[in-house]
Amino acid sequence: MNAPAIKTAAPKSFRIKSYGCQMNVYDGERMADLLTAEGMAATPDGDEAELVVLNTCHIREKAAEKVYSEIGRLRRADGSRPMIAVAGCVAQAEGAEIVRRARQVGVVVGPQAYHRLPELVAEAATGRVGIDTDLPALAKFGRLPARRRSGPSAFLTVQEGCDKFCTYCVVPYTRGAEVSRGWSAILDEARALVDGGAKEITLVGQNVNAWTGEDEAGRAQGLDGLIRALDRLPGLHRIRYTTSHPNDMTDGLIAAHGDVERLMPFLHLPVQAGSDRILKAMNRSHDARSYLAVIDRVRRVRPDIAISGDFIVDFPGETDADFEATLSLVDQIGHAQAYSFKYSPRAGTPAATMADQVPDAVADERLKRLQALIAAQQAAFNRGTVGRRTDALLERPGKRPGQHIGKSPWLQSVVVDGGAIGDLMPVEIVAAGPVSVTGAAVPID
Ligand code: 5AD
Ligand code: SF4
């Protein structure tokens, strides 16, 4: 599409603001790689950037409205407007509507088309809006530049999209059908990340445990096979994956939790609700009991595993009894952490037009109770780790001079004195707070 845009000089500097999930963080990094390869410079100070990329999320709340107000506010330090590119799932969902409503936007690019970002930016600089919201299956990966540098902990997208069609969720529409990236492309990227400094890799996908592929010998593999291949990669110390669906927790993947030492003892496995009636209305295709059975099997092979999850309160028709069933399920699981959200109707999804949308006042009260319960479980989990000797992968500076913040194997934030970013520091957990623990360096034996 070639609607007129505001003509600007070709931008030489950029800033990317990513919202939402880990896949967006990964996509944001890849867009930065692309723009850097074109000779543009990343600005640490957003006010200076000549191009601002809003890498948006559409999963909940008035996402699109928030993007429009952000667009309206964006100014450079000298008061001029930067070129604005809207990327991510709001771009996919809204498409050309974005430029109709916000004339300042020069580029609209969906999650499967961002390999074309530099071209679209060049087009916008000539005064024509660059729009691409096609959804080809993973074509972009072959066109992205090789990865060169990495932080100690890196994301690697291996799978995108979703075929599950939970009735509340936009992902099947904004990210498209489930597609897996190829085996060697993933292993090549993993090697490049390790060469670039990564000690930990998190395999990312909307349904990452639905990943399937073939290895070099043409044998069918699942996510567990990929994890075992990564386990043989020299220099890689930690492997994680997110986000998973309970129905895709295969025997092989559960077994990997028991015998792959580098696979960290952490599992983010959303259940969403505890009432079977609500789970059915959500089209989750599992019930509370089958979910607990999966957790039980993972715990049998890896007793210390930290369980995380996602919950939605106030799905249409949720009664007090349904909500109590969620609290009871949470009680039985015992989380190391979990996210809970108020149901947010998304246009185009089946749940948005269901009867009995729950009033806000009830929703707020239920959300508060659920969050209090989860917070108590998280604090208890943290207390339970005091006295453990483990290691922390240091990722960023702490508040005090010399202090660093890292992650434990159980994905707790660990605050330590000393060390350096990138260290896998042997620590003893000596104190626990509600959302983090304190580690003391222990000598390496
Ligand atoms: N409303 C509220 N929460 C939602 N999620 C997905 N769609 C919605 C919605 N319409 C939550 C689910 C999912 C997480 C990423 O976001 O819990 O697991
Ligand atoms: Fe959305 Fe359900 Fe797919 Fe998760 S499994 S991305 S909640 S449709």
UniProtKB/TrEMBL annotation:
Major site of localization recorded for this protein: cytoplasm
Cofactors: [4Fe-4S] cluster
Localization (cell): Cytoplasm
Domain MTTase N-terminal: 12-126
List of residues binding [4Fe-4S] cluster 1: 21, 57, 89
Pfam families noted in UniProt: Radical_SAM, UPF0004
Every Radical SAM core domain range: 148-380
Classification via Gene3D superfamilies: Methylthiotransferase, N-terminal domain (3.40.50.12160), tm_1862 like domain (3.80.30.20)
Keyword Lipid biosynthesis carried by entry: no
Record-linked InterPro entries: Elp3/MiaA/NifB-like_rSAM (IPR006638), Methylthiotransferase (IPR005839), Methylthiotransferase_CS (IPR020612), Methylthiotransferase_N (IPR013848), Methylthiotransferase_N_sf (IPR038135), MiaB_methiolase (IPR006463), rSAM (IPR007197), rSAM_horseshoe (IPR023404)
Protein EC: 2.8.4.3
Annotated ranges, domain TRAM: 383-443
Residues that hold [4Fe-4S] cluster 2 according to the record: 162, 166, 169
Broad enzyme group: transferase
Entry superkingdom: Bacteria
Alphabetized UniProt keyword annotations: 4Fe-4S, Cytoplasm, Iron, Iron-sulfur, Metal-binding, S-adenosyl-L-methionine, Transferase, tRNA processing
Record text on subunit structure and interactions: Monomer.
Database matches in PANTHER family: CDK5 REGULATORY SUBUNIT-ASSOCIATED PROTEIN 1, MITOCHONDRIAL TRNA METHYLTHIOTRANSFERASE CDK5RAP1
Known function: Catalyzes the methylthiolation of N6-(dimethylallyl)adenosine (i(6)A), leading to the formation of 2-methylthio-N6-(dimethylallyl)adenosine (ms(2)i(6)A) at position 37 in tRNAs that read codons beginning with uridine.
HAMAP family: tRNA_metthiotr_MiaB
Protein name: tRNA-2-methylthio-N(6)-dimethylallyladenosine synthase
Organism: Sphingomonas jejuensis
